[in-house]
Each structure stands twice: as C-alpha cells, then as structure tokens.
Specification:
Elements lengths: L2 E5 L3 E8 L32 E7 L1 H11 L3 E8 L3 H13 L6 E3 L6 E8 L5 E6 L13 H5 L3 E4 L6 H13 L3 E4 L9 H7 L5 E5 H8 L4 H8 L5 E5 L5 E4 L4 E4 L13 H14 L4 H16 L20 E3 L2
Parallel strand pairs: 1-4, 1-8, 2-6, 4-5, 8-9, 9-10, 10-11
Antiparallel strand pairs: 2-3, 6-7, 11-12, 12-13, 13-14
Helix pairs in contact: 1-8, 6-7, 8-9
C-alpha cells in the first residue's frame, strides 16, 4: 500500500438523462467537423426529462477514489463550498475511505457543479459547468504535503494555475515524493512552461492532441520520443486507437481493452491515469499497470458517472492487444 495525494477539482455532477430530446440537427456551415445541437429544446419552453442522477466528479476526487478502492492510503487536496454539493462530496470521500483533512472550504463560493445532458440513444453529452470553488487553487498550501508525506502526488488540472502547481511540484521533490501529472487544456496554453515543469514529473499523461500542442507533430511514436526527453515515463492516449507509452526501458502500444457500448465518457481520462498509478504503486509491472489502466477506463465508460465503474484491483483481467515496440 502506498500513500497517494490527489490534487485537483471536486464537483457535483447532475445528470439530466433523456432518450430523444437532446441530440438532433447539425449546426449549419460546420462542414469540416459536424456538431450536433439540441433538437427539441427551445428557449421559453419546457421539456420532460426521463430521469435525473446525482453523482460526484472532478479529477481530484475521481483519481482519489481509484487509489482508495485499490487499497492505497488516499488523500484529496482541493476546494469545495459550504453547501449541499460540498456535503455530497465529503460524504463520498468518507464512504470511499479517502482522507478529507486537506479539503479547503472556499469563502463566498459554491462547490463546483456540472449539469450533464446525456442522450441515451447516442451516448452523446453536453456539459454545463460552474467551476465555483474549483475555479482557483492559489489558496492551497503545498506545506500540507509535509504532513501527508505521500509516496506519490497525482495532479490533475488546476485550471491553468501553473504557479500553484510549481509550488506543489517543488515541495514534492523536496520530500522525495514521486509525481504523476495529467495537465488540463488551460495548463497546455503555456507549453513552454509546462515543458519546463516536467523535470519535477515522473509520469506524464496526455492525449495525442495535447502531446502535439506540447512538442509539435502528429505521429504517436514521434510524439512519444519527443516527450520522453522531458519525463521518465510518458503515456499518450488516443481515444478509440488505444495508447502508447514508455517508461524509458519498455515502449508499449495498446489497443482497446474491450470494445463495449459507451454509456458515459465522463471520467475516462481520470480512470485511466489513476488506474495506471494505482497498479504501479501496488508493485505491478509497467505492462500490467497499463492493462489495469485500460480496464479501469473501460469499466468507467460502461456506467453512468465518473466513479461507479472504478475497479478495485482485485478483478481478474483478460488479455488485450499489446505490442512491444523496439
């Protein structure tokens, strides 16, 4: 068992679920990339929803849940408000056995909330998000790591707050804690700064588009080779194409763990990244850690919400398409 601290957002996810009212026509003039719009929802009218579901999400709490379910000593560091949504998140952390001692209560701010409009026929969704207390992270104190003494610090998006991130990374380095980082789109707006921070990072997780934004290029192997000069272990995901990863010794190309009907992609990236680290911190090999990451992500997208499908690490996994690249 390892001590793993998750740094990131905490949100309440409210699902509005319907089978025929959400997805419809095509936005005119979008020839290159067709975008679906709401079909039967019109301003000034009412629409009946088939059902509603209240879940919790956010990269920080999603990843901490994976670590806790896999038997690690998990801690969440992030912001919530003093409101019912915040209470729901604290209840979830408590239920999962996650240490909430380092949760900060933002003054005069509500807990972040996402309203997710999900079409059950297509699996498509639209997310309306109010970041609330998870909009900023500059109030968080890196000195908390001195008390937590984590073996690993797992960092998700801090909404572009690279100053706070750097403070946490430096403190982790000072404490000899390892770091895995899954940056968000706002961090990636400053690619040079992101690359300069990778000297503090042991494992970097990005998707193919994000990798291209950092180092340029479109070929997966080329992107991996460029990024491996910045971090010891690099994982690049590519949606339905799987992923490619290297730990400096092995380079592995992954296919899909299972080709299943996708119910909800919320939390897919979080479950992949945290699944990898949960397995690696349990002493699994690089290859087996990648397999568990893929299995965890597959399980999550097969269920509604970011957390219900998260695995425990005790499941019997089957083989999946893997290729060792020399």
């Amino acid at each position: 068992m390892a001590k793993i601290a998750s740094l990131g957002s905490a949100l309440q996810d409210i699902y509005l679920i319907d089978h025929d009212d959400f997805v419809g026509g095509i936005i005119p003039g979008e020839a290159k990339e067709e975008k679906e719009i709401f079909k039967d929802l019109q301003i000034g009218t009412k629409a009946d929803i088939d059902r509603i579901s209240f879940e919790t999400g956010g990269g920080g709490t999603n990843s901490a849940t994976t670590f806790a379910r896999c038997g690690h000593e998990a801690t969440f560091i992030g912001n919530i408000g003093r409101d019912p949504a915040g209470e729901a998140i604290l209840a979830c952390l408590d239920e999962e056995g996650i240490d909430s001692s380092y949760v900060y209560f933002a003054s005069r701010k509500k807990t972040g909330v996402s309203v997710i409009l999900l079409d059950t026929k297509s699996g498509e969704r639209t997310i309306l998000t109010h970041r609330g207390a998870s909009a900023k992270f500059d109030n968080l104190d890196p000195k908390d790591l001195e008390e937590i003494k984590p073996d690993w610090l797992y960092v998700t998006s801090l909404r572009g707050d690279l100053k706070t991130l750097e403070k946490f990374l430096k403190k982790a380095k000072e404490l000899n804690s390892k770091v895995m980082w899954n940056p968000g789109k706002l961090e990636l707006k400053e690619p040079k700064k992101v690359l300069s921070l990778l000297k503090y990072v042991d494992v970097l997780l990005v998707n193919k588009t994000e990798a291209g934004e950092l180092v340029g290029g479109t070929d997966l192997r080329e992107l991996l080779n460029k990024l491996r000069g910045y971090a010891e272990t690099v994982i690049i995901t590519c949606g339905g194409m799987g992923a490619i990863a290297t730990d400096g010794t092995e380079t592995i190309r992954l296919g899909l763990y299972e080709d299943i009907p996708v119910k909800d992609t919320t939390g897919a990236g979080d479950s992949f990244g945290s699944g990898f680290l949960a397995a690696l911190a349990s002493g699994k090999s690089f290859e087996k850690s990648l397999v568990f990451a893929a299995a965890n992500s597959t399980s999550v997208v097969g269920k509604l919400g970011a957390k219900p499908g998260i695995l425990t690490g005790k499941e019997k996994l089957h083989q999946m398409p893997l290729e060792q690249i020399k």
